[in-house]
Amino acid sequence: MDRRKFICAAGTLAVGLAGMGAASLAAAAPKQEGAPSLGGKTLEAALRARMSQRAYADTPLEEPLLLELLWAAFGVNRSDGRRTAPSALNRQEISIYVARKDGLFLYDAHAGSLTRKLGADLRARTGVQGYVGTAPVNLVYVADMDRVAGGTAEARFVTAGLDTGFISQNVYLFCAAAGLATVARTGIDIPILSKAMGLAEHQRVILAQCVGHPKA
After folding, report:
1. What residue ranges define each of the domains in the chain, with the CATH number in brackets?
2. Pure H helices in the chain
C-alpha cells in the first residue's frame, strides 16, 4: 500500500474526536455534551490544512470547543486512564494550563474540566511576541520534572520536550480539523511566566501555544 492510500485509509478514523473512531476510543473518557462537530474531516484533510497562524479574531473560544480541544490534546481516552498523547513510561508529567482573559486555569483530564488557578489575565506573559496577548487562549505546557522519565537532567529535559511535542501536535491537528488558528511558541521569558503562574521549583514551562478563531 503506498503512502497516499495508507493516509486515506487511516483518515477514515477521523481526526481527534471527529466520527465514530474517536467516539469508540473515548468511550471511558469524560467527554462534554453539545460540542461543535468537526464535520468528519479525515486525517489527510487535517494534515493538508495544518499550519501555524499568528492572527486571531477578537472573540472568545467557546467553552465546549475548548474542552474538546483539550481532550484531543491530552485527555483520557481509555478506561485505564491512559491519554490521547503518549508519555515516556506513562508518567503523564505534562500539565496544560490555559491562560484566558478571565484568568489562568488548569485542565483536569480525568474530570474533563478546567480549574481556576488565578484571576489575572496572563496571556501577554506567555510569550515575547506581540500577538500573544491578542489570542483568546494561550496553552502553557508545564512539566513536573520530578516525574519525567530519564536517568539524567538532560535526558529528562529531552523527554519532557518530546512528550510536550506529541500534545502540541494533537492541538495542531484538532485546530486544522475545526478551522481554528494556532501556533506553538518557545519565545517565552520562563522565569517571569513561572513566577506569575506561581509554579513550584520542580515545575518547568516547556512550551506555549496560542489558539483562537482566525482573524478574517
Report:
1. 3-212 (3.40.109.10)
2. 3-11, 19-25, 43-49, 63-74, 153-178, 190-197
Q: pLDDT tens digits for 101-157? A: 999 999 999 999 999 999 999 999 999 999 999 999 999 999 999 999 999 999 999
104, containing H or E segment: strand 103-108
Rounded CA-CA distance 113/106 in Å is 8
Q: What is the pLDDT of residue 39?
A: 62
Q: How many helices (H) and strands (E) does the chain have?
A: 6, 6
The answer to whether residues 173 and 165 touch, using CB atoms and an 8 Å cutoff, is no
State residue 86 phi and psi, 5-degree precision: -75, 160
The pTM (predicted TM-score) of the whole model is 0.84
pLDDT of residue 216: 87
State which amino acid sits at residue 153.
A
Closest by Cα among 21, 72, 213 to 135: 213
Of 136, 71, 137, 63, nearest to 98 by C-alpha is 137
In the block, residue with C-alpha cell 517565552: 188
Reading across the β-sheet that carries 181-185, which strands appear in turn?
113-118, 103-108, 94-100, 137-144, 203-212, 181-185
